[in-house]
Amino acid sequence: MEFTPQVDESNPDPRIACALLLDTSTSMTGAPISELNQGFAQFCTEIKDDDLACKRAEISVITFDSTARVVIPFTEGRYLQPQQFEANGRTAMGAAIDLALDELAAQKKAYKNAGLEYYRPWLFVLTDGAATDGPEFTAAAARLRDTEAAKGVSVFAVGIGANADMSQLGQLSTSRGPATLDGIKFREFFHWLSASLSAASQSSNHGADDSAIETKDSTEQVALPAPTGWTTA
Amino acid sequence: MWKVIGASVTGTSHASGGTGCQDASGWRRQSGITCLAVADGAGSRPLSATGSALAVEQALDTIAGLATDESAPADLTDWLRFAFGRAQDRIAAFASSKEREPAEYATTLAVAIVAAGRVAIGQVGDSIAVVGGPGQYLTVCPEAKGEYANETYFITAGDWAEHLRVAVLAGSTDVVALSTDGLRYKITNIRTSAAFGPFFDGLVDYGKDAAASSDGIGRFLARLVNDQTGDDKSLVAAIQVAGNESLARDDGEKWPEVPPADLTGTPPSLPVKAHG
């Protein structure tokens, strides 16, 4: 007699929420916004190629120009659809960060209510300039750092091109310095992001590194692979 | 009579990541006592496979020693606390001999003592312990969940004793099963921690088959590729294979189901002693 018991197939997969905050201000006009759109479209395809990531990764896109708005609410990778983002206006990065933190909190609550296990969310900020909502940015950056310190989110700030304010981006995280996108290699960036979400979805690497509640499997909630192929040296 | 079978296998993500199996499991029979143990070494700690192996070995040695010691206290809760302490000491001493920190050997530990009419289960960390019989399985003292998946407590932490969950259940049972969290998606409801009955029915049936073996458990665990965790998996079970002990408690009452809302507490209405 072989041991072939029935197992529970009804438990829903654990989730990893990923918020993408994309700068769509006027300075992104032309090749940058075009490459961003193509990169995102390619990401929508690539994420579906991974059986686990397409079910476990939930992606939200918040664009920011003169205002910040949720253009794609948290959506499972398998249902993610490309969008054409347009460049126009100023750089309300602070508002975007505030909005993203609100959205992430709501998403975590939804996971809890649904009884889903989840990993520490990822938050990416991509900008080619500097925040034009200074006081709001300062407060939002502090809120983001606090959330990061409370293990509420993993933050990854990315400067696009030479005019990105890297010192401002440096204020978004105390644990990870900002990276610089090499030129307009959005497609390389999104390819890396898709691969990273695949890796995270396949691993059991999701513990915290607190002293009381210790890390189960990783020193980081979900270890982000080192950026490859899209950053400047 | 109890038949004991069990195995630990490397999870798919540990296999692809080259970390090998960090789970350990084992059992011992001594003087009418059957003792089971499973441990799950922290994936983030390269030496945790040693930690889990030491924890299981020391816990089993300690319980076996108590079972033969006529001066040992009768209270199984005391036995468990002592065994967890000895396991922690053993890892600390081993770490010290290697000039390492105990945290590098971080591991969870679950120990079940199956004695006449009583089952005592101690756990630090996110192990799974299930007792009961067809139609009525009970997940014993599941760990309260942190915010994220896979946050847990380890016996190597200085405050392990505060996180030791002990339950002593009087009565009889068809099965006593211990597992690490790698099976949580497949043998429990991840929201309520309730045991998935059909699995344990299958386990009890299998255990009663003359050909039941630890290799069979190992093959089952190895086949379970899409387990939603990728984690190492362990299962050790003592299965009642003879005698006519019924599932009923000594007082004839049936064991209650785990209340879904109570993920942290000990099961109500049971003759339970809880710590931590």
Describe this structure in words.
The complex is a heterodimer of chains A (233) and B (276). In chain A, 35% of the residues lie in helices and 18% in strands. Chain A has 233 residues and is of the alpha/beta class. Chain A has one domain (16-202): Rossmann fold, CATH 3.40.50. In chain A, strands 3-2-1-4-5-6 form a six-stranded mixed sheet. Chain B has 276 residues and is of the alpha+beta class. Chain B has a single domain (2-240), classed as PPM-type phosphatase domain (Phosphatase 2c, domain 1). Chain B contains six helices and ten strands. Chain B is globular, with a radius of gyration of 17 Å. The two termini of chain B are 32 Å apart. Chains A and B meet through loops of A and helix 1, helix 4, helix 5 and helix 6 of B.
- Briefly note the structural class of the backbone of chain B: alpha+beta
Report on the biggest sheet of chain B.
5 strands, antiparallel
What is the CA–CA distance across the termini of chain B?
A: 32 Å
Count the E strands of chain B: 10
* Number of structural units classed as domains of chain A: 1
The CATH architecture assignment of chain B turns out to be 4-Layer Sandwich
For this entry, give a set of tags:
heterodimer; A: 233 residues; Rossmann fold; 6 strands; 35% helix; globular; B: 276 residues; alpha+beta; Phosphatase 2c, domain 1; five-stranded antiparallel beta sheet; 10 strands
